[in-house]
Records
---
Amino acid sequence: MELQEFSDKYERTVSEVSRVVLGQRPIIEHALIALISGGHLLLEGVPGLGKTLLVRSLGAVLGASFGRIQFTPDLMPSDVTGGNVFNAKSSNFEFIPGPVFNQLVLADEINRAPAKTQSALLEAMQERSVTVDGTTRELPAPFLVLATQNPIESQGTYPLPEAQLDRFLLKVNVTYPSQEVEQELLSAYVAGFNPQKLKLSQVLSADELIDMQETLQKVQVRPEILEYITRLVSSTRDHRSIDVGASPRASVGLLQTARAHAASLGRDFLVPDDVKSFAHAILRHRLVLHPDAELEGITQDDVVSSILAETSVPGGVS
Amino acid sequence: MRPDLRGGKARGCLFALVAVLLLTTSVCAAQAPAISDDPSGELESLPEAASASTPEEGETPETPASAALPLNPFFEKEVRDHLQDGRYRFCQDPNYRFFRAEKESLCSQVEAFEQNCPTLRNACQRPPWEEEFKTETDESSGWNLNGLGLDFVGVILKILFWLTMGLVVAYIARALIRRAQLWREELASETAPTPASPLKERQDNFPEELRTHVLLTLARASLDSGKITEALHLTYRATIRALADAEWVKPHRSKTSGDYLRSLRERGPLTPTRWDESDAPQGVPGAQSDLSLDRVTMHLRDLDRERFRGGPRPEKASSLLAQAEVLASRLSPLLIFLALLLSGCDRFNAPQSPHEPYGPRGNQLFEDLLRAQAPSLHRRLQRVLEVPEEASTVVAVGAKLRPLEWKTLNNWVSGGGHLVVAAPPSQFLDEFGQEFGTSPCEGTLTAPGIVPVKTDETRAFKSDTSGEILARCADKPFASTVEWNDGWVTVIADDHLFQNVSLAASHNASLVFHLLGNLDGHVEYLGPFTGRGSQNPLESITRAGFGWWVFQLLLLIVIYAWSRGKRLTSPVDPSGSTRRAFSEHARALSRMYERAGASGWALRHYSEWVYDTLRRRAPSTRSDMKSLTRAVSGSEQEANKLREALTIGRRADELGETEAQHHATFRRLKSAILGVSEVSHKKTSKKD
């Protein structure tokens, strides 16, 4: 696929989803970038911000199958992956696939389920396959998990451990829309807008999506940009406020998302802006703060911002 | 187009000249006086100099310091020489203008001063300032709007004016400092390689913050040498530097083109545009005269494209360099300072305040004459908290001293000094006695051996003082000297005689120095300037009126620190939104207690928790400590150690043990808890 075509399809996909999910263009772009980069997305935000609608709409626009898992404290791993059920008619055990066997999976409130259930999903995300009773079954391609979790001060939650968080390519903090956007939304509803009844056109097919993933290879990356990415990620390992920094997986993720961003703009080369655009989303969930820093109110975003401000960009002023 | 390095220096010199001119005009405007600046509120007439005559022979007044000074040509010459200084405009400037009241008082006696002030007659023939501007004087604000009663508007305008002047001066000062820094860098960079010399590939060889034209020159050199990538990087840096010079962006090594463009758009959303070869500008955009944001955007994006896409093109690099040169020339700061030039103030037509040092009512001439007469003179700025040992005479003319300072002078005089006070203030009278009270006097000033001096509305003492009378006004004492313990005090009823215009008549100068007596040692000169300097920073703040502001600021800081809590004694919990988990919060708190040396307190709480946890987890039917510890321990010995640790731990803050002992107890308790967890886990696994 040519980069111009890539850019056009990207823009059309985002615009089409934006017809239904109003005022959340950055989230839509992050979801699409994650999909194109072959990663998964973690959204943190309160209910009512259109997360389910987003994934459902994305599935419609991409012509992809959609599955939703509502995580609760009593959710079992087999509720996620599926399991063998005895069929009395055929007297055989039949495998009933779980909701994870969809191309787009919404894992709602993932931090409400116990660690065992979380692991089942996270293993599927990593391996792109599910093993039940010794039989390994491949998950469909492309495969995107969009997980949501409540803000961390809520009671009765099981926070994802740091090692599991690393499996998510991007983490986005979803905030309330601005007053103007919310007013536009209400105006749209007054004018008869109904997201449930709105028909979305399919813009991309699964094959085209895979093609887009392969097109990323056409985006050239200069050695100084690679060095810049490496410096950014390695800075997280030495930062005074960080106990555990980002792994090389973060470097790869940053590279891939930056390439996807450049391609979405029709560019066949990477610039430092592409890297900076996704630094927060890539790094914020991979950093373990030092308790002292946490006590002082420092957040992961603050640390990433300070690292970005202290790291010289290639080709910039001295 | 090659940028001209010399042109940059010329612009810099011109800017410096303009800045100096502006600063000068600003300072002079700051000295623009109120129309009426007479502290007494009423201009008094000046003593008139009578015709010259010689003193009677043999008559020498018996002053403590010396014999009376007869009129002598010394003062005539001294006065004339000093008045040649062009700063005495009232004496030398034929275009000088008086204020009305001053004109009426002085010009009626112009004959007395003509000898030393040849232009005075011309100045007296010119209309006063008030007629020039057709405004009435208003002593309350100095800024009156044609008597319309809008005095408050005048006050507001006055404030706005000084505020604006302050901002202009501050801006110029800041620009001067920046220029100086850039000049130093340019001086350092003048040893940079010439265009013909080879340049290294790595672009970080160049010193930080080179000036725009230097970067452009280096970029041109790199391009000529075939180092395209380096030329592109230098062109980029030059572009950013040009934008920074115009204060459109603040450069930083961590900022990308996107960051700069965002700040140029005032942090609005940067909509990404399609990258298309056909969008790229071709050649030098010389025909386009606008410096628009879109052009800057396109220029930076083109630079990024060539820098970060493999295989930069020489012709494209040349085109971008030319664009950068055009951009830099358009953003020259000269335009800004030329605009400032148009707003400069005009010094030379500003009226001179009568009371400024070289004005008619000033005292500069007296000081100059005193400096010529005395072996050494010190113009005292600091408060008079002590008098130098070498001082033999202290002359106080119009000095506003505090009671403590008069007391200091009193002690010094009592020890053998000579104090001369003109127009004694009430604090002096309180310290030295009320016999020096004054009242108005009309008449002629007379002193033994001195030519009588006619005066209008001067002051004299109410009654004869206890000392020797040095001069009289009519029949009242005008100046006298009194023995004061081991020293002498010479008191002069008023200080008009010490003013410049008064001393312009040399006979007056003779009288004044006669009254001062013999100045044969170091002289301390006190005036209205005395005490304006501060002894310490606190006094300086108080004088500036900032004392209350500083106090409020300190109070705010204290309240803020109190609200945040002290780290070592009162740890402040983080807000709920930032706390991740209780365990991590507890861990962080424990570190704070550790820093506070509160290990005993922490151990006590931990021990209580361990005890409570063991009771809940341990498989024991009895809750006493012996049974409990036996239930969780593998042996009697272990149980005893655990019991001991629990007992000590629960009273850790009372027993006064060391931190190391606390840590040992803590470890023992921790292993006990972990052991219970292991036991519980094994039992659970067995059940599974």
---
Amino acid sequence: MVYENKSFFRKAVPCENGDTFRQCNLSQLLPHTTIGEGVTGLIFINCNLINCDVPGDADIESCNVSQISFCSHLHPEWDMPKCPVECSHVVDTDEIVIDGQVVDVIRHREDTIL
Amino acid sequence: MSTYYVDPAAGGDNNGTSWANAWTNFQSAADTAVAGDIVYCRGTQTVTSGNEIDLDTNAGNTINGFISFLGCDAGGDAGAGQFILDANSDGANCLKFTSTASYLRFENFTVKNATGDGVLRNGSQPKGWLVKECIFESCGGDGFGDYLSEGMFIKCKFRNNTGHGIGNACSNSRFWGCQFTGNGGNGINNANYSGVAAMGCIFHDNALEQVHMAVAGTLINCVVDGEDDGTSGDGIYNLGSTNLVLGCRITHNDKGGEFGIVVSSAQSLSYEDWNAFYDNDTNKDTGMVHGGNDDETLTDDGYTNRGTDDFNIASGKEIRSEAVNLDWDA
């Protein structure tokens, strides 16, 4: 089957042997999400494969294959596991000090490219 | 007015004066071209981490005109092919622009595969871009990040990005005949800036809202269509008393509890009288317009073939709005 211009963002991807995905969004919220386990002959052309682990024999052409650790604090709109306050995505902090007392801490976060 | 050439595969003098001696790096064009100049670009440039292209030097102006960057096919014909900036899963962005970069014109460019936003604003807003028949796709952030003011996007595609199709579309920007499809965020995310207008656009299969509006936003003759499996959010979100939605088809925003249109303040305009609704919310009695009349206005969505993304109105179907025939493809 050929899937074209379809989005499987944060969803299970239906895969059968020999399927082709063209200009699809298969990106997932968690790094190294397995796509098409046990399926052979998959073809991905011009797709968003962020955080996907596809079968080793898959043919990949001009796709985004990045692995990204997304921070839930930066993406509250996504239904994903919540990061702790002091998550690994914190890159810098600013303390708000009044009368010598730290009254608040501003944490600067970034998604992490793995 | 000068003319320059960019071709990453060129093997000449790398001075931009001809195709044979074209610059092999688009950065050279970005740093050299001034108002009124034209830069023809062909082929594919890989944008690596740390070598993202900065648009921070020159600008067009209202006297001498745009700085024009025009994508060409392999034969050098402008408009017959795309110039591709491919971050290849490595570069954080393909293009970064600063407040300097006003009055730029891009035609037939493809920006893709960045780990972050395909195009990133780095500083205050410039203004006055003209972006035509460009594609922003498969990026880890937004296809086009925070925008700039007073710009125009014509027949562009924002697709399959993990973030929004376009981030905060800044004040008074215009979209005509554009497609926002398959993005992990909103098709247009415009929570903060006024005066955004979209005409004849298609919003389809974006995982959150198809359109997130701010004050004084306008949608005319658009298709606002939810995800195929009914998991997306609202069709049009955050309409206020200064927004205008006319002649749109608002369909299949049917996750359950989601609406075709969500309004944030009392409306004097009855959206049901001026737009077409079908299959928004699984409970068809309560899902059309939050706070408004709840009846569907169509017996089916009327599209020629939604499965193949053909949103033109099929022959003989009831027409309460017209979808735009987007016959352009890269």
